[in-house]
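Dear support,

I submitted the protein below through the web form. The confirmation email said the job was done, but the results page showed an empty box. After a refresh the structure appeared. I'm attaching both so you can tell me whether what I see now is the final result or a partial one.
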Amino acid sequence: MRWFLLLLLLLNAFYYVWHQQQAPLRAKEVASASSYQGARKDIRLLSEAESPRLPARQPEVEPQAAASEAAVCLFLGSFEEESRARVVEQRLLSLDIQAEVHSIDAAAGVEFWVYLPPLASRQASLRQLRELQARRIDSYIITQGELANGISLGIFPRSDSADSVMQRLREVGYEPQMRELSRAHRSFWVRVAPQSRRLADEFLLGQLAGDFAGLQHQLMPCEGVALLR
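What the results page shows now:
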């Protein structure tokens, strides 16, 4: 009986080996290259799918334009007296508005100066001065400048008045000369710094105009205006 069971096992093993050798080989399927390329087209990176589109970059303000805006100041004025400008300055400073008093000299016309040139010495000029005063001609010694020791005969607002004095002097033997002098008018303004311009709004400017008759406000270049210390 034992030999019979052993024989059956050997037969089963032989049959299994023989069956495996007789079974046809199965070809392993390989995906085509075209299928791989088609699948590749559908692949997207996670960062591409989830990251939002960035907004377009806004154009930057040119530094030159910003600098030009910063170089313009608000001026309040004008004042004939510096003391009144100082009152407005202190009022603005109390409101944390940076302000300073500036003076502006504007041309106000021409004046005409009649004079006698300096002589060889101061003693000679003093003798000439006494002669003029003896003739009742208003005159005084010039003490400084290129015409020092010369004699001033007056400054006149009109050329015909100067010509009249010169004619009178020529008639008595003198040789007067004349110079044109530019006459300047000084006014005072309160300058508001560029960084404080937004604080000087229409309401505040209206209050200042009510407290200071004739007060005006203008935008002018910050530089080129004399600062009073």
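Response: this is the final, complete result; the empty box was a page-load delay. The chain has eight helices and seven strands.
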